[in-house]
Batch of 2 targets.
Target 1
Amino acid sequence: MTAAEVPARLSLNTVSVTLAGSAIVRSVTADLKPARLVALVGPNGAGKTTLLRALAGLLPMTGQTVLDTHDLAGMKPEARARRMSYLPQGHQVHWPMRARDVVALGRYPHGGRDPSRLSEEDSRIVALAMQRTECLSLADRDVQTLSGGERARVMMARVFAVEAPVLLADEPTAALDPRHQLAIIEALLGEAERGTLVIAVTHDLVLASRFAHEVLVMHEGALAASGAPAAVFTPRLLADVYGVQAATISVDGQPVMLPWSRT
Amino acid sequence: MKTSLPKLSLLLSLAGLVILLSVLSLGVGPVKLSPAEVIASLTRPAGDAARVIVLEIRLPRLLLALGIGGILGLSGAAMQGLLRNPLAAPSLFGAPQTAAFAAVATISLGINDTLSWGLPVAAILGAFASVFLLLAIAGHRASLLLLILAGLAISALAGAGTALAMNLAPNPFAALEIAFWLLGSLEDRSMRHVTLALPFITVAAVILMSQRGAFRALSLGEEAAQSLGIAVDRLRLLIILGVALGVGASVAVAGTISFIGLVAPHLMRPLVRHDPARLLLPSALCGAALLTAADIAVRIIPATTDIKVGVLTAIIGVPFFLWLIMRERRSLAGGMT
């Protein structure tokens, strides 16, 4: 079963998350189609990461998340893990492990518990994932010795190796140089082209407006706007949500919002 | 599910070492027996002196050294896997300290003496109590930090309770008895101690071994592990319970034996390429070998009074621990994260 074979539609119905008594995510409703790169944006504290973590099953939430016809709430952890992969921030690895073994952990929900005894099918998927993030040449390196950019590619391959129809990534381009940022975005776009619904939290409005098929803008826990980047990213929205005045520039005929000063 | 056992050659060499030490252990003591004599004694008729020495005096001691050393090594590896930290020890959540307190309290109250049947029962109950206390304080879905803080508090409380029990001991002999019991020893233990401790140790080993695959996914952090389908809350509970059972039973029959749980996983880690799942079995074998060797050493080292095996493991273990910290410091200074 590969991601491309089972594209899935994800519906969020009044999803809310309350942490320690305060409502962090408030009644988010959205319908997300497969084979799309969705950028989840919003100022710090808007609830983006919390929403993403709730979708990944890491936080208790109310409301419904339905993947095709399956309610995620009733799913066993392993079954859920096969349908939703999650890339946390930080890319931490606590023991010295080979890059290939880290990527192989993506096969864990499919029964590939031991990186050195993967089935042929699992090995093929792991190699393919590493190829797609251009880190096959790092396979035998210890991840703890890799640079930030190299490690980001290995961790992305780990999430690809899950082959889940929905991929959740928390700030995948943070702390990367521009070239690595583009490489990661291109890899995510490639994953979307294979049929996966990719939801990525980002603060990079330029990357979001350029590459995302759809953006979800969160503001104070609620969904402030959603739709195609060109329709959503207006000077007015940026002023309302981010409190910044933005300049609109045009690159290759494509409008790009550039936050310029505080309002 | 696929298994994740380490290389057979490593396991076989460790098992060989354990067997060698076992034969030596059966031969060492006031009456010295060569390995051939040890084996020959097993075929002698009941009542034969050599047979009595080997089967009734030294075999229980050996079985306890193997079981306790093994479960300490296994618990250490599991704790280090759960916490993703090479400095974690089985005593972190307070089970051995609470078990020791419960045992000591019964000595102080005059209910038990150090070799009686009731003492290990009290200690095992104490270890159970520490788990319930930990969960009552931290809650079922507690974070690791909260569990560590609660464990620290429980350890400190149990330590204070132990001090109080010695303080209130009815006579100086009871206080001395407590002090010596706390040092940790395998002397004069009988098959009754073995039959009491081994079932708990076995259950603990099964629980800890059954979770080994999860430690590998935990290398990526708790969130990533959970997103891969591991119920991290449940895993934490199982490890806490397994460690409390195994280490509690160990304290119950042998007193406090420190540092084996910390040292054994470290010795084995480079041999399994730092794989936290594969580390468990070699750590258990290494722990068994270390404690058996230490228990042989206390019988060989000439001293006016018996040196307790718990003292010996600490004397060797602490410098090793210091070296570990220094090595960690060096690697931290070297820019590794």
Target 2
Amino acid sequence: MLSFLAPMFLAGAAAAAVPIVLHLLKREPEARVKFAAVKLIKEAPVEYTDRRRLRELLLLALRVTALILLALAFARPFVATGAAVVSTGVTVVALDTSYSLAAPGRFARAQQLARDVVAKAPPGDLVGVVTFADEADIVAAPGSDRTLANDAIAQAATGFGATRYRSALSAASQHLAGRHGTIVVVTDLQENGWDAGDRASVPEGTTIQVVDVGAMPANLAVTAVRPLADRLVATVHNGGAAAREARVHLTIDNRPAGDAVVSLGANQSGEATFAGAPRGASAAVRVEDPGGIQADNVRYAVLGGTSKPSVLLITGSGDASRDAFYLQHALATGTAADAAFQVTAASGAQLAAWTDDQLSPFAAALLLSTRGLERHGRELLAGYAQRGGGVFVAAGPDVDGDVVGDVLGAGSTLRITTPEGAKPAPRVLAPADGRHPVFHPFAGNPASLGLVTFQSIARIAGTGCQTLARFTTGDTALIECPAGDGRALIFASDLNNRWNDFPLHATFVPFVHEAVRYLGSARAHAVEYLIADAPAGVKRAPGVVTVNAARPAGAGRLIAINVDPRESDPARLSVDDFQSAVTRLKDAGRGAIQGEARQQEDQQHLWQYALAAMAVLLAAEGVLAARTS
Amino acid sequence: MPWTAHDRPFLDPAVVSRLGTLELKARTVVEGLLSGLHRSPFKGFSVEFAEYRQYIPGDDIHTIDWKVYARSDRYVIKKFEEETNLDCHLMLDVSGSMGYGSHHAMSKFEYGACLAASLGYLMNRQRDAVGLTAFDETIVSMLPASSRPGHLMALLVTLDRLRTAHRTDVSKPLHQLADTLTKRGVVVLISDLLDDPEEIIRGLKHFQFRGIDVIVFHVLDHDEIEFPFERATRFEDLETSEEVMAVPGVVREQYLKQMGALIERYRRELGASGIDYQLVDTNQPLEIALLSYLSTRSRSL
């Protein structure tokens, strides 16, 4: 389909038509003269006007075409394909393939509803199909052939992912930007499809329709498995409206290891405990639920390994209880039986004797002091970050900005300065990007961070760094900087109750946990993953698999892949609640469309052909005009 | 001595065309012309005394009565009423081609009729017998020459009733009229001469052979002389209705060449035969044509 990068220049072509229109409007009737000396005219070499008129029309056509080609060249034409095609309407069917639809008969109903949507799409609309769970896949690009859309729906199948409406709407919007269109979401309207504070943006004018597949059937799900020292505990949830008895079976290394029965009230959870220390490599807990969702009937766990990511604290003396008392305890905070993170402390001087292999297992390194951090230690941390490690810098009184620059590797533009003689002044912190994972726990109550008072801060800045939070004075509070394959968070104050009272507030622990979790997520350290977070190269299906660790070479480790338990929650949204979470943005996605259009135009260079054709026409016009005059 | 006019302008044919009747047009043209001439045009072989009049500068001194001067020492002019001594035949072409007229002038036919009326008026006033023959491919109307006082009105009425219609065949009526004339005189042909020149010249020479002087007024419209058309035009023949579409810019040069050659041929061959030829543009004042006639008549007497 022919499109234009700068269509306003086509107005020039319209101007070329003005003389023609004027000519037509003011055209005089054919001149007729009754004349006496016609005989003398006949004796002259008469050029009959039919031939001349034809020649003049040809001249006019050549000139007008040349002008149109000139305007066309300036309008930068190109043959648009894919998203660059913007003239027709589009209907995109977003079909939910999360595992909550895997109960018997439910997905077939969803497919039928999707086919109905395709059949009812406005004539002339392009129809596309997107399947979505954790991520969205475009299984049928918008096109006029509805058979392809129906085929894509027929071939769609439920997986093990959880519902994420945002991914569905984002993928569908890519095909709508710049066009009027409709996104029809065929889903079971699970409430957990929207994360807390989550919103999706679609282009202005887009119509969102929701086709409800219906509520989940009565369902039992294993939502957690915790191997402890002397027992293994499985949590089972009854999502039905009636009390049920759940029969739970434990297998260790694929051998039956115990059974349990748990009585569960309506929409309640209970624990099945299997006594005795679980011995083996991996365990699977299964609940009998033939009529419900199958994917959440089993959950896997790795035995004998720790599920606690380890964190390295780099302090002035290497004594965490003295230099990082609050942080150490915050990281160690977990359930009653288990800590969240395993904490190791080292001084900058001690790092001088460390190797890459020693540092590599840590999920994150928290730099609280640069005292004694010599060149080797800096290079060690820089290499760690380059290979995907996560570094958190608390730019408190013990951190030297010049040293930190080396820690992030060559090319880092990070600057940390501490104003000389700056007097303490109270200020509070406010997230600049509330959607960042670090602030995920505060999505429902962002004001809670405002209770923390910061008396002193450092000035932090860096090219290419993203500001995540600011102080009320306008100074940058938290930034994320690129550091090779890893991540680096720079905090403009300390974490030890010296420049602020952050450790004394309830927001400290979740902030620290989310920050470390975010930093550590760039590398695989955990032994249990949800489907959506499974390491690259691992099949996205529940089970226990062996993956290769980065070091030492050839060594492998077991990890458990499980479905997201939130998908088992039967709580549902209303259609209005769904619609209220969608924001319609003017020009949303238009930039991407324009970028693609520009790229296509650059590849095709049709304007050059238009100019060449115009030159040829003008040459022909010159020849013809010379013969006509 | 040729006839001359005062420096005052002649009447524009467009103005004349707006005058009411043909008689009024003729009178206006002729009286206007005569009042501007230094010398009276009326002169004949035998005259009848009318009255005496005080000499005024500008009168011909030959007309002074010297006997009266001898008796009374005064210059007195003898005035005479002229007698008819010339038969004049006006031949007016009323073929279809004479119907052509551009926007701002009289058609060739109107111009020719007005010229004929003026000549008739002039001739009648000087007691010449004047007749009228209208023709296209044949003679359509004929009024014998007469000098009776009421004859002028008959001539004007005849002219007023004429209409253009048919094709031209100039030579045939010329021969017919030449055969019928028995008395010497003057034939005035008013035509656009858009016919075979050879035949026309032969017909005119027929009059010469019979001892009759011929004056030819070749009446052409300004458009026919200049061919000022610009747009591509469908030209329809006024006589044959034949149509030709042509671009004037392309054919103009050749057309003008053809027209120039035609005029030049008439001028050359008629002049060589002693026939007065006068090309008349319908944009020209009628007086110029009348002066040409008077000049020829003075030579004839």
